[in-house]
Amino acid sequence: NGESMHGETKQRSKEVDAAMKNFTGSSEPKWKKNRDTIDHKTRVWAGWAGFWGIAGWCCAIGQNELILEGGDPKAPVQEVLKGANLAVTLLSAYCIWETNKLEILFERVTRYILCNQHLETTISFSTLATESFMLLEWLIILPHLPPYCTFEFGATSMGNDVVYRGETLMCLLNSLRLYLLWRS
């Protein structure tokens, strides 16, 4: 019985592939119905998310190193690094948006092929927020120190006063972006 189910699924997949090749009556791009293309695009977007996320972490490392060398947290080079981190953080967040959209689309196409469910290729923000981990991913990658912002955080540990710079704390938070390499 398992073989006949596999055979039916395989036959259905062939029928869908044939129908997709002849698909013409829509303004919808054909790639939105091709699982191989969707999977490839997903990996590309995830790779870019990783690239931009790690680039932002490198900016944060540069900020932290300048502070550790006794540099001024309001120096122009710091502001340039903070601005660069802001830009690549936003790029990474957008890439994560696209990656999650494509993952949901892949699942929908798969359900269409295997279960003959209606294929909806439009994916809204509310769908992304409820059917993916996008918001959690944004929570991990979006924290950074924006331009013209710096702070110190003090604490007492074992009778010693310890002061942490915002650049150091944000560099530590930015290190969580390493998961993007695993994701890609």
How is the quaternary structure best described? single chain
Low-confidence stretches: 22-26
**What is the 3D form?**
elongated
Helix content: 55-70%
Order of helices and strands: HHHHHEEHH
Number of strands: 2
Radius of gyration, in Å, reads 23 Å
By helix and strand content, what is the structural category? mainly alpha
The largest beta-sheet arranges its strands as: 1-2
Distance between the termini: 37 Å
Mean pLDDT across every amino acid position: 86
What this model shows, in words?
- It is a single chain.
- The protein has helices spanning 2-21, 35-68, 76-115, 125-131, 134-141, 166-174, 179-183, and strands at residues 152-157, 160-165.
- It is mainly α and 184 residues long.
- The longest helix is centred in the middle third of the chain and has 40 residues, at 76-115.
- It starts with a helix and ends with a helix.
Set down the secondary structure blueprint:
Layout: H1 2-21, H2 35-68, H3 76-115, H4 125-131, H5 134-141, E1 152-157, E2 160-165, H6 166-174, H7 179-183
Antiparallel strand pairs: 1-2
Helix pairs in contact: 2-3, 2-6, 3-5
